[in-house]
Design a protein that fits this description.
By secondary structure, the chain is an alpha+beta fold. It has eight helices and eight strands. The two termini are 28 Å apart.
Length: 214
């Protein structure tokens, strides 16, 4: 999804045996569109480890035998070096957990962003698909660019501005105060923005531990 900067993986979940999906942040989603596609589908099983390379003009299935047993971050570095493309490619890959068909394995891009739900890394592993390398440069056009700009500005207006101004010890205390109340406690919107900027979505873990959601 271009507007939100996220991409989606779907397949049969090896964890549940039913529908599985996982989404991830980063620039891999726009990279799919820059190759001229809305989605990429895989079926069947390769006879040896492989990866997909696409640059908007050619599509190749290349050997990944030299990458099997390599962790996802290192795989990304090596494939970017091997791509030989003028445009910096985007890479989504699995590590050893996916290769070993771990039911909690995910698909990694940008050095650690993870599509982690449903065990879909194991789906790639079962197909011996190590990675996707996308190096397209096709323009990404919108049906109504003026409306997209309007919506973007309107959404941006809701985001509080300012710098992180809270020490880390404030958060556990605040969460405990919030759970002690019988009614919801109104907080400064910048408090949440600051926490997510500093710690990312792992902030939710801390909140969940204190509130009992985890």
């Amino acid at each position: 999804t271009l507007f939100s900067g996220r991409w989606m993986v779907t397949g049969k979940s090896p964890l549940t045996g039913g529908w599985g999906d996982a989404n991830c942040g980063g620039s891999f989603g726009p990279a799919i569109k820059a190759c001229g596609y809305d989605a990429i589908f895989f079926k069947g099983i390769a006879s040896e480890p492989v990866y997909l390379f696409a640059d908007g003009e050619t599509v190749e299935i290349r050997s990944a035998a030299h990458l099997w047993g390599v962790d996802a971050s290192e795989t990304e570095k090596r494939l970017k070096a091997e791509a030989g493309s003028k445009r910096q490619p985007r890479v989504a890959s699995i590590g050893m957990a996916g290769e070993k068909l771990s039911l909690v394995s995910g698909i990694c891009n940008e050095g650690g962003r993870l599509a982690g739900r449903s065990g879909l890394g194991a789906v790639m592993g079962s197909k011996r698909l190590k990675a996707l390398v996308l190096a397209g440069s096709k323009p990404i056009r919108t049906a109504d660019s003026a409306e997209l700009k309007r919506l973007s500005k309107a959404a941006n207006a809701y985001v509080p501005k300012g710098k992180f101004r809270y020490p880390s010890w404030v958060f556990p205390i605040l969460y405990r105060l919030m759970t002690a109340r019988k009614t919801a406690m109104r907080t400064d919107g910048m408090l949440g923005v600051a926490a997510f900027r500093k710690w990312g979505t792992t902030t939710i873990n801390q909140i969940g531990l204190v509130t009992g959601d985890t």
